[in-house]
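Protein in question filed below.

…
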Amino acid sequence: MHADDERVKRRYDTTRRRATADRTRRAILDAATTLFVEQGYVATTMASIAQRAGVNTDTVYTAVGAKPALFRLLIETALSGEDDAVPAADRDYVRDMQAEPDAASKLAIYAAAISRIHVRLGPLFGVLQTAAPASPELAALWQQIAERRAANMRLLAADLATTGQLRIEVQEAADVIWATNSPEFYLLLVRDRQWTHEHYERWLADSWCRLLLT
């Protein structure tokens, strides 16, 4: 075999292995999400996740780590909407908001993004609510994410202030958005009061405009 042919074969084999690993990882994440939501955090074992994903238990640990790390990964990917965690500043909707000069349009983009995020995140947060009191690791996870959201909301409020349309202080605006974009708030309205996602999104955008803007 010529050297060029050997390099092509190695690239092909590497690409094929990576694709196989990605499919395995996706199957594990899907299986874990289903089982956590159906059975809860404590009752879901790594062995049951492996069985549902069609892999052995060692593969689950190799691909995603132990159960707390797996649950963290599910939360992070639900937030980012990707198979891997994506920092807030690198998400498409954040860039769209930053490029938009009008405050109401920024908030409409964000309301749509939050509605999509909570379709994924809401059920997992319900699991976390139940499990966190008995799991310091999960309680710490949510505290970290809540604090990170608060920091991101300060950036969002500061961006809104640059339009000249913000009618309250930046910190108060950040706190209002932080509270109302939370998964707790989403679950109260969509799960418990049975709002549609479309109603929730429209209400969120309208409420933010009424509360925050001139």
